[in-house]
Amino acid sequence: MDVMTRSSARGIGRSVAGTVMAVAVAVGGTPAFADDSVNTGYFGGVAIMGYDTVAYFTEGKATKGSEKFSYEWLGTPWHFANAKHREMFISEPLKYAPQYGGYCAGEVALGSVTVNTDPEAFKIIDGKLYLIYDKGSAESFAAHAAEAVAKADENWPKVAADLELDQYH
Q1: Of 50, 98, 118, 139, whose CB count within 10 A is highest?
Q2: Backbone φ/ψ region at 150: left (φ over 0), alpha (ψ -120 to 50), beta
Q3: Whole-angstrom Cα distance, residue 140 to residue 30?
Q4: Phi and psi angles of residue 26, each rounded to the nearest 5 degrees, phi first
């Protein structure tokens, strides 16, 4: 089974925990946050469950951030491991923010969302961060990156509109 079929077959609960505000588009016209929804998980209230989004790029791994190095963007707190990472994010948030508001990229490729992502299940593809449901699905997503990213990019505007209308509760 490919990542999209497995993810769908799990019957993952769809829910919205993000805040919807203005429209932002990433450099090059590829949607990073087409509607500015930010996945904060079911209970955390913080982006990427408190993981440092810059560390994915600088350290190549998931690194827990600290409330001490917090910054609010899109109405959501983001935590960083250190002040340097926070400053890097402040200067270029679209460069470091995960695609599709941090929702599972594989699920977005299917035309839906899941709040359940594993911050350690990620891939950086063409300089962009994608969060996925689990590590196995992340490997499959990366193995089919061209197709999966194209489908997710195509589906994101509708998924984002549904998020705004709270269609996944």
Answers
A1: 98
A2: alpha
A3: 22
A4: -70, 160
Identify the residue with better confidence: 87 or 3. Answer: 87
Does the pTM of the predicted model rise above 0.85?
no
Give the rounded distance of the alpha carbon of 98 from its chain centre.
4
Structure tokens at 115: 């709040």
What is the dihedral angle through the alpha carbons of 25, 43, 60, 95, rounded to the nearest 10 degrees?
10
38-97 pLDDT, tens digit per residue, is: 888 766 789 999 999 999 999 999 999 999 999 999 999 999 999 999 999 999 999 999
Compute the distance between CA of residue 17 and CA of residue 76 in angstroms, rounded to an integer: 11
